[in-house]
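Box 3.1 A note on notation
Throughout this textbook, protein chains are presented in two layers. The first layer is the amino acid sequence; the second is a token string describing backbone geometry. Keep the layers aligned when reading.
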Amino acid sequence: MADIKRPKNPTARSENLLIEDVAGELLIYDVSNNRAHCLNESAAAIWKHCDGSQSIDKLANHLFPKLEASDARQLVGVGVERLRRRRLVESAPAAAATVDLSKRQLLKKVAILAAAAGVVAPLVSTVVAPTAAYAFSCMPSGFPCSSPFQCCSGLCRDLQCA
């Protein structure tokens, strides 16, 4: 059986994505699965620097030089893992041996160390966006209806939009 290897260094995905900087946050729409992601400043910085040439340690040193190396590595590790789970970054999953805390404890620690250093913890918010067909808000003329509110014209006659 062939061994499937994932890249060791995180690499940001670029295909089938629509990307827009808005008010200090990065909005990424994944066309392949109709999901919209909002990355805060820290998560956006991590994603933008994931070019496959830098390890998590190098990213941590580059992005958060004021933090202790272990704290910066943990912060970047959490950010990369959040991005990986949303399929925005390709990388090896975080090793279970390096994370000895529960997810809640780890996130609490990351938030505390980020706040102490004046850094925002990397956050990624995701929503499922409707496809164009589901986003249709009214029915055009000739489509079946049961109420005038369903029709773009506001007229429903004989169970058909006028």
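Residues 138-162 form one domain. Confidence is low (pLDDT under 50) at residues 95-101.
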